[in-house]
Amino acid sequence: MAHMAWDLWIDFQSGDDEGLTRANTRNLRAGLTVTVGDVLIVGNEDAEPGVGEVIELGDRGFVLVKVFPGTVEENRFRLRPGYASAS
Fold first, then answer.
1. What is the pTM of this model?
2. In angstroms, how far is CA 40 from the centroid of its own chain?
3. What is the pLDDT along the chain (87 residues), one digit of tens a residue?
4. For residues 22 and 10, what is the distance between their CA atoms, to the nearest angstrom?
5. Which of 33, 42, 39, 47 lies closest to 77, judged by CA?
6. Among 5, 16, 27, 32, which is most exposed with the fewest C-beta within 10 angstroms?
């Protein structure tokens, strides 16, 4: 597997019953800012990366992300240029 950089570090295990995962803006890739509706590559060191949409931004850096099923390659059509990619 090629090394994959991600835009936002998330803990996939912190998802809720509605398929939403909590994260924090302090875990964004350096220099990246996001708004509701942005679609990012999400991941962590212990799991295959995925693609998720920012659903909500809250106080103190709170981010709520909907992670799409499937691989990054299967969801690449959702991404806009300028976000993380395989390296």
1. 0.85
2. 5
3. 445 689 999 998 888 888 899 999 999 999 999 999 999 999 999 999 999 999 999 989 999 999 999 999 999 999 987 666 543
4. 7
5. 39
6. 16
